[in-house]
Design a protein that fits this description.
Length: 454
């Protein structure tokens, strides 16, 4: 296997020398512009991740065990879907009717039992070197959205390649790719003042608003030191930086007001519904990876994540609020993409960092002053929904044992899921980047596309 390495920033002298060369009658800036234009003409695929941070219970969503003993089966009931053998939770009737348009993976698993470590495993495909049971863990390696941002050039209309709707995953860092490849973060699209004016550059250094020109320029100081202000093509780099502020295409992509009210109602006027609608618009506009923050569907809820410990939530009450909104948002998104002929180009994934313990736990009181019924962290088995991307739909991939404790058929790792994602995005996951020590780091050390889906 041959790995191709990213050389990193070019020395200023080398850049200037290359810029003076004629390449078949073209200067280097002209060649780069033509390559960028050619890339714009290629089929641009996208991934929308409905990121259910906190760890959604597989037993209350996509891998229910109604025949398990009471202490395992939980308080909710399954319903049949349009696909035989694909039963799902009773609070997701819309998904049940269109199950032929998605597939369910029931055999995901890994070994990281804390939220951030599990998230890092799922989003980067890299196991944390030293497991951290606190909420302060941050990744050593970039997530797949950052990888995509590094490998795809910015679009000519200024649209970024990686966007977090409401927020991007906070536990991942671009590391050796550079801070410029963190996601741009958009505000809550269900709010009346939502739009690109509230987008921020999530550099980890300064999240100032993009409409503050001085803050934006400060984020390009390092880049400007590398390049000479008089080099051919430098104005184009500056223009790309500011296009996000002034581009009518960027503004138009964020303008949900241009959508038909009936379609907005169909998605749901809550944050998840409007976030999924915005995600569809961003994918249509050429954004490569869109992360929909699927925590706290509204500001008033106490069910602020999917972290269903008994001391925090009650499984029934929490899912009764969450799942109908998720059901409405996801089915509208998948149907909308299908109706617009985007099923091949856009892949939708709904998952979290792990599942929940098979045995139900209890607490005398939870955050809502109710008796608590919940489950704890469980990375040994969890589920995901996947749709579009030209994959095979209407099937269940893998299976767990009778109590959903571990996979017993076709086990799937986060690395396999990411290999499937990278395949869709046109990224060779065997390629590597050089880390800060100059050593090659493959995009994935292991994993292969999920055979049943491709």
């Amino acid at each position: 296997m041959t790995l191709r390495f990213c050389r990193g920033p070019v020395r200023r002298r080398e850049f200037l020398r290359a810029g003076t060369l004629a390449l078949g009658g073209l200067t280097l800036p002209e060649l780069l512009r033509r390559r960028a234009d050619a890339n714009e003409l290629k089929r641009q695929t996208s991934v929308i991740l409905f990121w259910m941070w906190g760890g959604p219970s597989q037993l209350e969503t996509y891998d229910m065990k109604p025949d398990a003993p009471t202490e395992y089966r939980g308080p909710l009931n399954p319903i049949q879907t349009s696909v035989p053998g694909m039963d799902i939770c009773e609070y997701m009737p819309l998904q049940a009717k269109m199950a032929d348009k998605f597939s369910i993976i029931r055999s995901l698993h890994h070994k990281m039992s804390s939220h951030n470590d599990g998230s890092i495993e799922v989003l980067t495909g890299k196991t944390p070197t030293v497991p951290d049971l606190t909420s302060t863990a941050r990744s050593e390696h970039p997530d797949f959205g950052m990888i995509l941002s590094r490998l795809r050039r910015p679009r000519a209309n200024g649209m970024p390649q990686y966007v977090g709707v409401k927020r991007a995953p906070f536990m991942t860092n671009p590391g050796y790719l550079g801070a410029a490849h963190k996601a741009f973060e958009a505000s809550d699209p269900s709010k009346p003042d939502a739009g690109p004016k509230n987008m921020t550059v999530a550099t980890g250094l300064d999240n100032g608003r993009l409409d503050d020109r001085r803050d934006l320029l400060s984020q390009f100081d390092t880049f400007r030191r590398v390049l000479d202000q008089t080099a051919d093509g430098i104005d184009d780099f500056h223009r790309r930086a500011f296009t996000i502020l002034t581009s009518p295409e960027v503004a138009g992509a964020f303008d949900l007001g241009s959508e038909d009210d009936k379609l907005r109602d169909r998605y749901g006027r809550h944050r998840w519904g409007q976030s999924c609608l915005l995600a569809r618009r961003l994918a249509e506009s050429g954004v490569g990876v869109i992360n929909v923050d699927a925590t706290a569907p509204n500001d008033a809820t106490k069910h602020f994540s999917w972290d269903d410990h008994a001391g925090a939530f009650h499984l029934d009450y929490a899912q009764r609020e969450r799942l109908p909104q998720m059901d409405q948002a996801l089915t509208s998104l998948i149907t909308d993409l299908h109706d617009r002929g985007l099923g091949e180009d856009v892949m939708v994934i709904a998952c979290g960092e792990f599942g929940r313990t098979p045995r139900v736990t209890h607490a005398p009181k939870n955050f809502s002053d109710q008796p608590g019924v919940g489950r704890d962290h469980w990375p040994n088995a969890f589920s995901a929904l996947i749709a579009g991307g030209g994959l095979r739909m209407g099937q269940v991939v893998g299976a767990t044992n009778s109590k959903s404790e571990y996979p017993v058929h076709d086990p799937v790792t986060p690395q396999d899921l990411l290999a499937t994602v990278y395949r869709h995005l046109g990224i060779d996951y065997h390629d590597a980047f050089s880390n800060f020590a100059g050593r090659p780091v493959p995009i994935l050390y292991s994993g292969r596309p999920i055979e049943a889906l491709v």
